[in-house]
Amino acid sequence: MKDEKNTRLPPSAETEHKNAADVEVGRAGSGSALNPVLHEAGSDRASAPTARAGTGIRVLKRNMKRNGSRGCVTRKTRFGSRERDWLKGDAQRGCVCLYGASESQPPASGPQTTSTTQPDLKLVLCSTNTTVEELCAQRDVQGLYLQLHGDLIRRLDPSEHPLQMVYDYLTAMGYEDPLRVQQEAANSDLSCMIRFYSEKPVNADQQERTLLKGVFSVRKGKTQLHKWAERQVILCGTSLIVASVKDSLTGKMHILPLVGGKVEEVKRRQHCLMFSSAGPQAQTYYVNFDTLADYQRWHRQASKVVSQTISLVDLSCYSLEEMPEYLFYCQDITHLNLRNNFMRLHGPGGLVNFNRFAQLRSLNLSHNGLGVFPESVCEIQTLTELYLSCNGLSAIPARIGNLQSLQTLSLDGNQLDSLPEELGNLVQLCSLGLSFNDFPNIPSVVEKLCALDKLAMAGNRVETLGLCILLRMTHIKSIDLRLNGLCCVKSETLEPIKHLTQLDLRDNQLTSLDLSSACSLETLQCQRNQLGALTLSGFTLRTLHTNNNRLTTVNIYPVPNHLTHMDLSRNLLEYLPDWVCDSRKIEVLDISHNLLSELPARLLSSLSLRKLLAGNNRLERLPDLLDHIPLETLDLQHNKLKELPESFFYKALNLKYLNVSANALVTIPPSSQSEESLSTLQELYLTGNNLNENCAALLVGHQNLRVLHMAYNQLLSFPASKLSKLEVLEELNLSGNKLKMIPSTVSSCKRLHTLTAHSNHISVFPEVLSLPEIKLVDVSCNELTEILLPDSLPSTLQELDLTGNSSLILEHKTLNLFSHISTLKLDQKPAVTAGDTQGSSTLWDHGYAEMCGQRNKLCVSVLAVDRFGDSPEAAYGIFDGDRNEEVSRLLQCTMGDVLAEEIQHSNLDSVYMCNTFLTSHRKLGMAGQKLGASALLCYIHHESFESGSYFSLTVANVGTCQAVLCRDGQPLALSKVFSLEQSAEEMERVKLAKAIITEDNKVSGVTCCSRLLGCSYLFPWVLPKPWVHTEPLCSQDEFLILGNKALFQKISYQEAVSTVLAVRDPRAAAKKLGTLAQSYGCRDNVGAVVVALHIGEDSCTCEPPLLTTDNRGPPAPTPLPFSVSPGDPATPSSSSGIASEFNSEMSASEVGSEAGSTASDEHPSSGPNARPERRCSLHPVTLCNTGPLTSLGPGTHTALFQRQPSSATFSSNQSDNGLDSDDEAPLEGVISNGSKLEVEVDIHCCAFQLRSGPPESPKDLDGRYDSRGSDYPNSKMRRQNSVVVSATNGCLLAVCGREISDLKKSPSTSSLFGKKLSNGSVVALEESHNIIEVALEAPKKKSGYFAAPAQQDPEDQFIIPPSLEQDVREQLKGQSPVVPGPPPPSTPPSAREPNWDHPNPVLPGLHLTTVLPQDVYDTAL
Fold it and tell me: DSSP label at 932?
């Protein structure tokens, strides 16, 4: 330590020398000898060898830079040469980062001030054999502390090996390569998951809740008899403790119980509180505090205590090793919660002293890692509740019998396989928890517990249950035996079991079950078994849950007249037993997903039935209703119904919910027999039938209708007069019909908040933007041409989808009005104009849908990159955060970059996909500690071998997101569902790890998934290691479907495939999948991605050239032709989620891929009828024919914005609408509507590399060239006056702009800079950069969850193949300069890729009809 102080630099020097370090070198823990040398930072001097050469530890002190995330730090340079040499020596070597005690402390409020000092991080180089004792001896510290996932902090045992613990942690996560484990262990981001401290951090807020003390002026009593005196005052637990002597606790202690008492402000004195106890003999103390902060702190904590109804002290999750000694003065404590700590047996506050609590009744010591049962607890005779779950206990001592008052004993999640006989002495024990232990059968001692009525034994090893055992336990009423692998329930006796009322046999392996002897049974749960037969007694049966079995019938005798709830779904029932109709009190009946062909008439006529779920059967008709029925909810979706009974609605007057989607209905019955209707129907789902516009007239009588779904029917129109009658309508879905307009009377629906009408033929925008509560309008995939808007839009409008309207023209005023919408979706389909080229054929294209449903936020995100990497590749993903949106958005922004980086490290699909998930899990940082998300990633790549090549699809997933491939019209599942209910293997793994699985099949009650990205605090039960599967693609593979849990819960694989086959267009198909899921009853977020595959038998889609004489639009001038290569994909960068690099595919001629394809030297022909030869991505070298460039004036079919991201708009007086393209197609990515240019931004394309830019001035031309192999490694673009032409997901993007300040001032653009979008996109604000950042709530580059180092701006480039350089120069000479500036150089450079720099460049091949301004900026996506 002395040497440390002598070599430490002053603060100013530390700032200057970022890589300064003190290095203490000793003998390695593994036994290798090193020369001990101490190097002083910033100098070449070496100090004398350290005296401790035997500890074998290298310690480096780095000046660390905070990256904005409270739990993560990063350094400018990760390792120096010495560190790298150390790691190269042996895979068992590594480094351990030791943090100071204050490192874990977040700022008290707001950002940290510059005056706050940050302690240096100590980087210790050691081996896996180095112990804590050696580390402590080297650093002269008392001990080391371990913190997992930013949670509890545990003192390490001296014999433990810190580095080995890190390696074991990473191996358990899923890393397999020892060298990769070594590399990951040295990553500073890992500190969010596992971190070591040289001192125990102190949480000020936690300490405040545990103990408050100080010396203050105190006066006893309400009268003036006692004088003020300085005394030590302590607030601990439930009492106020006042010492009789100042600054000393040796004298008499005055204890004031506060529970039920009062704490009040004394207004006569400043900062004074009055504390009073409860009861007739209440005592009062006045305490005068010195500062306002002390006063507020004590008042806040004391108010919590006095408000309690019981004397409870909750110290859970405080990382306590022993209890505060002052707490023993609180003799009124009755309930003590010490859950999730590290309590020790011995010490002043250890468990051996707990018998000092005279009134303690409830003690919770769960999750303390005790290892052995604390026998000292057996001396607390007053205990009635004892919780010792998850402590690794393997035996229970005989002294447990001393707790004669014990009523509740919880021993769940331990390693017990037997109980002592003395346990039978607990005559008052009524609840015993033995779940998730290793019991092979029900312990015999349970029979002696005469007061026991509830026994929990879930998750044990009980394979056989004899009813004779239950017969002997005459006191037990409830038994939980789920998750036991139970194979047989033996009925060895006919003697009735009269005491058992509740039995839980879920998730076992039963094939038959006969409980007819359990004559008092009220509730039976036997879901997810393999039952083919079930026999029960119906005397007292009230609730029966037997779904997900193989039942063909259920025998219950006598008729269960007390039965109210029954679930028989997902079985093999072909008919309903008679006793179902005879049951008099049944209220809820679920018989969905069976083989029923008819429903008994008596069932629908039941006078007790309130809810009937009969979807996914084979029903062809409903019986006529004979009388009025009380039915309120009826689900008949996915049947074969052609009609409903004529009297259905006026006999079911209480019906509020009706779902008859996916049937064959051609009409619906009238709401009443007369004009006056008594209907109370509120939700009506009619999606997927054969209804026409005549049915709409029959809806008028349902005047209470709030939700109406009539998607995918045969509606040609919707009667205007009828729609106006639905005045309380809130949600209307008319998608997938043949509507040409939405009636203007929709404006009468004042409560309408959602209108969905995509996939129709609507040409006029519906008049819904004047509605006061409108939130979502989806009119995508229609034929809109213009939008007539009111003067102002409602502030409630959150989402507007106008994609798929190729003829839509948006005026300047329209875009201004749309500026406040958080999610604005606009897209473009390229128009066909004179001489236009079809463009390169693609091997795949995609569409996606993200729908909130009835949730307030969208927690599903999609990643889509059609052109990924250097060769024809693609990446698609979907991420579902369930209840959180943060993790899914972070994964959306970063996972593509991580995949691109991992592919460089390994060519094994199982390795790079697995490492992609594990690295993304680490990069979540603090967000991934408590939050998580299901994730699925698909990577299409090209495989080569000696005889040929083919495409492969590699899929990796965790959680419940799924992928389905359509092959020959049939679904092929590619993913694995990591749900405890659907994976027996994962269930067993989680059980072996001693996790507590709650009754809803969730790990610790948090998630039903056993594998997720994030939720690291559930390690090792929930892991990030994915399932990886590679499937070779062939010509029979038509498309790929990705979806989240909500989608495939409602839509089967076969229906999903059939749906997409019927639509074909990927975007419309994805929309339809989401709409169907919502119409089938899904109220959660829905995400769907459809990827259309166009892969031939030889993985080639080359087509012969096509000629056309189709002339559309105004003629255009003929400038220098240029073309775009289809084989130049955008390569994602390794930046942390910021899409800041481009691949530009625009040059004076064909530009090859990054792998180095070349262009033809022949000059392409041009003409109005010329089209390029259509080639696939595997053959990109063929020269494309060119023709006149297309004018992007108002007459062109344009309407763009990418789906959910953002867009930057540029004012008309600074841009030109006459940009021409040699392929005669509008520039995809650019909107031109007469007044503006809009830039497409797609966050689903993670990163791109810019490879075209302005020409340089002649003086800078020579000698300034960049190699194609080093395309901007720094992930940023230089901001200059320039015009950028780039490729975004295969789209040509041209951007013309002006000063960034002018853009922010413009009404149409100001709201788009820094605007929050629903799927995570933003246009980030940067003072000196015109850059569109693409990650909402994802961290900025220099802060947040990711530790991306500062990177320099690359140079802009203009890339021209060397063979065409001379032709380009000649063409440039003939071009009239549009922007003033020096002429293009005439001397051809020798380098392959010239880098031209021009203050006011002109882009060759773009003929501008108006003069551009001199200030033009490039925009990076």
Answer: E
- Per-residue three-class SS string for 707-751: EEECCCCCCCCCCHHHHCCCCCCCEEECCCCCCCCCCHHHHHCCC
Tens digit of each residue's pLDDT (9 = 90 or more) over 442-500: 999 999 999 999 999 999 999 999 988 888 888 999 999 999 999 999 887 778 999 99
Dihedral sign from CA coordinates of 378, 382, 384, 389? negative
The encoded tokens of residue 1206 equal 């953002």
Q: What residue type is assigned to position 1390 of the chain? A: S
Angstrom distances, CA of residue 267 to CA of 241, 270, 273, 274, 299? 23, 7, 9, 10, 14
Q: Counting Cβ atoms within 10 Å, is residue 496 exposed (0-12), middle (13-18) or buried (19+)?
A: middle
- What is the Cα–Cα distance from 780 to 415, expressed in whole angstroms? 58
Structure tokens at 671: 């709401």
The reported pLDDT for the residue numbered 124 is: 86
* Helix ranges (DSSP H) in 307-437: none
CA proximity to 314, closest of 295, 296, 298, 336: 336
For residue 1055, give both structure tokens: 């229906």
| Counts of helices then strands in the chain (DSSP H, E) | 24, 62
Within 1197-1306, residue ranges assigned H as helices are 1258-1261, 1300-1305
Torsion angle of the four alpha carbons 1043, 1047, 1051, 1057, in this order, in degrees rounded to the nearest 10: -20
Q: Which two tokens stand for residue 458?
A: 């879930």
How far apart, in Å, are the Cα atoms of 36 and each of 56, 58, 129, 570, 1201? 9, 9, 19, 71, 63
DSSP helix, strand, coil percent of the chain (3-state; round to 5): 20, 20, 60
| Helical residues (DSSP H) of 62-131, grouped into ranges | 81-89
Q: Tell me the pairing of strands 844-851 and 860-865.
A: unpaired
Q: Cα dihedral sign for 1042, 1043, 1044, 1048? A: negative
Task: Give CA–CA dist 991/987, Å, rounded.
Answer: 6
**Full-prediction pTM beyond 0.85?**
no
Between CA 516 and CA 557 the distance in angstroms is: 8
d(CA 385, CA 407): 6
User: Between β-strands 754-756 and 488-490, what pairing exists: parallel, antiparallel or unpaired?
Assistant: unpaired
- For 38, what's the count of Cα atoms within 13 Å in the CB-facing half-sphere? 18
Report the percent of the chain where pLDDT is more than 70. Answer: 68
Note the pLDDT tens digit of each residue in 150-190.
899 999 999 999 999 999 999 999 999 999 999 999 888 89
